[in-house]
Amino acid sequence: MYGYIRPDRGALTVLEYRRFQAAYCGLCEALQKRCGALARFVVSYDLTFLAMVLSRGACTEWRRCPAHPLQKRPCAVDDPALDAAADYSVILSRWKLRDTVTDESLAVGLPSRSALALLRPAYEKAAERQTAFDENTRACLEELSALEEERCPSLDRAADCFARILAFAADGEESERRIRREILYHVGRCVYILDAVDDFEQDRKDGGYNPLLCRREQPGDKLTREEKEELRSTLILSQRCAAKALELRQEDVWQPILRNILCLGLPQAMNAVLAGKWNKRDRQTRYPEILKQEEELK
């Protein structure tokens, strides 16, 4: 997926970091168990966040995996939320790849076509289990494609199509589902807008659809300061709505991590993307505190 929804690891305690690691590794394990070994490659921070939002708690075991064969790592297990998030990960990855294949030429899109073919068996299994989610994803993306064809300049309409995909994953009793839906909708909205900002220059060069380009009266290579401030305002609005909804969620082991992601990690991603520095980050400069904690544990 996109990777914008991640924690500020330096602000997590060691225990919280281990729990986040367990959720990420648990999602990876669930992908292999439910969809095959190749499905591991679609594990993402964004869907780890979704799994924690949906989770009602999970057991943790220390396990080895192909990525870390020499050292055991904490892994969340026996959690239906991880199983559901694994299916959603495969479904979303399949549709994202299909969209990439549609937009690119045969030569340029060859890697995406190959990945799409390899992911097909996993997608068929996931779609069979999560038929409603798959159909909703298809409908929302078809609506988004229609906006692309008409070169719709409305950022809100395009972001709403994408946000409703994640919001559909909300489950539970009515009050619980409404809280989860609010969180996931606004997080999904932030993801779409951040991706539009991040892809602005590339879409301008390639002629790809981007509502930020379609609504401009004057051409230009980069977003203006006024445009960035307007985008910052709408991103902050959604970030705050998600954070307020989170406070209505029942307190559990995931709550401090989710709070960190929405109140620290997401604003950091917003600042980095708007500053054009999202792809220029370095682990040593981003997470010095957690690296120090890890060294102390050794």
Instruction: Work out the helicity level.
Output: 55-70%
Can you tell me the CATH topology?
Farnesyl Diphosphate Synthase
- Give the percentage of residues in beta strands: 5-15%
Uncertain residue ranges: 282-298
Shape: globular
What is the number of E strands?
Answer: 2
Counted by DSSP, the helix tally is 13
Distance between the termini: 32 Å
- The overall pLDDT, averaged over residues, is 88
CATH top level assignment: Mainly Alpha
What would you say the CATH architecture is?
A: Orthogonal Bundle
Order of helices and strands: HHEEHHHHHHHHHHH
Strand count, sense and barrel status of the largest sheet are: 2 strands, antiparallel
- Going by CATH, the homologous superfamily would be Farnesyl Diphosphate Synthase
Q: What quaternary form is this? A: single chain
Write down the domain tally: 1
Could you tell me the radius of gyration in angstroms?
19 Å
- Classification by helices and strands: mainly alpha
**Main sheet: which strands, in order across?**
1-2
